[in-house]
Design a protein that fits this description.
Elements (H helix, E strand, L loop, with lengths): L18 H5 L7 E3 L3 H10 L3 E3 L6 H8 L19 H12 L3 H21 L4 H17 L1
Parallel strand pairs: 1-2
GO molecular function, one term: UDP-glycosyltransferase activity
Organism: Rhynchospora pubera
InterPro entries: UDP_glucos_trans, UDP_glycos_trans_CS
């Protein structure tokens, strides 16, 4: 993500922005994403609610794994895309970052997913155990 920005007490970012660092910043209330797998995982591990806008390939499948608010139409390479009105985009952003119960529920769900992701990679977690099993299997086959 290429940006040039700055905020009070923050260093200015020029050129390529460190997305993981930005998503971890407490001022981030939501993340508009096309749902590429890396960005999806980065948002989950940061505990940031996503506004999903998939464009092609696996992005639609990734959105279905995490999305409550997102694209309703689309296809590979923008075939049959409908124009999304500015008012619709504004309303979705307000739903996610707003002070209402719906936004609060989305933020709470994002925090729960963050904790689950953290637990999965710690010793004894599912990702940790699966990776360990894979390594053990590869070692056994090498013998």
């Amino acid at each position: 993500m290429a940006v040039e920005t700055g905020c009070r007490g923050c260093q200015s970012i020029r050129g390529w922005a460190p997305q993981v660092v930005i998503l971890d910043h407490p001022a981030v209330g939501g993340f508009l994403t096309q749902c590429g797998w890396n960005s999806t995982l980065e948002a989950i591990t940061a505990g940031v609610p996503m506004i999903t806008w998939p464009m092609n390939a696996d992005q639609f499948y990734n959105e279905k794994l995490v999305g409550e608010v997102g694209a309703k139409v689309g296809g590979p390479y923008f075939e049959n895309q409908e124009l999304i009105e500015a008012e619709t985009i504004k309303n979705v952003i307000e739903r996610v970052v707003g002070e209402g119960m719906e936004g609060e529920a989305m933020r709470k769900r994002a925090k729960i997913l963050k904790e689950k992701a953290k637990a999965a990679v710690q010793e004894g977690g599912s990702s940790y155990s699966d990776l360990k099993s894979l390594i053990d299997e590869l070692k056994a086959r090498r013998l």
